[in-house]
Amino acid sequence: MKIEPLVIGDLIAKIPVIQGGMGVGVSLSNLAGAVALEGGIGVISTAQIGYRMPEFDLHPIESNLKAIGEEIKKAKEIAKGGIIGVNIMVATQRYEDYVKAAVAAGVDLIISGAGLPMSLPELVKGAKTKIAPIVSSVKSAQVICKYWLKKYNYLPDMVVIEGPKAGGHLGFSKEQLDNIEEMDYDTEIRNIIEEVNKFGKTQEKEIPVVVAGGIYTREDMEHALSLGAKGVQVATRFVTTYECDASDAYKQAYLNAKKEDIVIVKSPVGMPGRAINNAFMKRAAEGQIPHGRCHLCVQTCKPAETPYCITDALVNAVKGNLDEGLIFCGENAWRSEKMESVKDIMQEFADKN
């Protein structure tokens, strides 16, 4: 199959691979910059992005907003003209400020999920930054396109379809995730693409649709492209790279994981998620794990009622304190067998013709 570049308005990625945003701290400037340098789109996760700053515990949001600019700048230096994006969760407290910080730093693309980013066009008005909502159903694609068109006379520059095999927080019920094999998600992907294309034609706008969730190899990409997608978003595969911003211990957890170790968990912020089962998950299932100061992560969290602090759990994991950490992953994490370079992965996905 001939692999065409991914075109998002005036942005052109030679290889149609977007590296998925992974928080906390898994995809920062080093990984995103390396992917962009090789012709893909590198994506920084803004979720608690400032966790390494000394003032983070006292002033988490201010630390995050400062880190957004710093990480985008570093990534762009590594990328040497490549495309750098950010992933900003709609559920993030003070979401609008995160978007404005990314735009001010000159980010090329904002990908936004964990809720529908209804106000995103207004927040990037006047900037060159491209915007892409994450959807998981035809209905969510219809809602966002219809609303943006009516309210802002604007359609997405790209749409990301995140399927049930993705990592981290998921836009599906636990029942759906427990019965993935019974889902005909390929048909849903085709229908979403058809719906987005219909909206695009009304405004004579090309809106590329990218498929995420369970994309691990070139074969997976070719299957997504055969459904009508213009590109893919890959996350889990990039964790076990030398360039990934997570600790070596975090990467080793992926290398050690077996298929049966990958489980659906109930996140304390109210969404189902996919993670590697470990000592922390077993303790969390048995009862509440004490936590201290709130880190103001997402709007849906109720600190007094949560079994553990998800920020603490994710920060512990990325730093390598795995017995105290939540290790989010995609369904294919068990396929990780060796450390790789970003360059080698990108060459696998590049056009061979």
Series of H and E elements: EEEHEHEHEHEHEEHHEHEHHEEHHEH
User: How many discrete domains?
Assistant: 2
What share of residues is helical? 25-40%
Which structural class do the helices and strands define? alpha/beta
Q: For the record, what CATH class of the largest domain applies? A: Alpha Beta
| Number of helical elements | 13
Task: Compute the separation of the termini in Å.
Answer: 8 Å
Number of strands: 14
Mean pLDDT: 93
CATH architecture of the largest domain: Alpha-Beta Barrel
Walkthrough of the structure:
Strands 3-11-10-8-7-6-5-4 form an eight-stranded parallel β-sheet. It is globular and about 55 Å long. It folds into two domains: 6-246 and 336-349, TIM Barrel (Alpha-Beta Barrel), CATH 3.20.20.70; 248-334, no CATH class. 37% of the residues lie in helices and 16% in strands. It contains 13 helices and 14 strands.
Key attributes of the depicted protein:
four-stranded antiparallel beta sheet; TIM Barrel; alpha/beta; 37% helix; eight-stranded parallel beta sheet; 353 residues; 13 helices; 14 strands
Quick synopsis:
The chain is an alpha/beta fold and 353 residues long. The chain contains 13 helices and 14 strands.
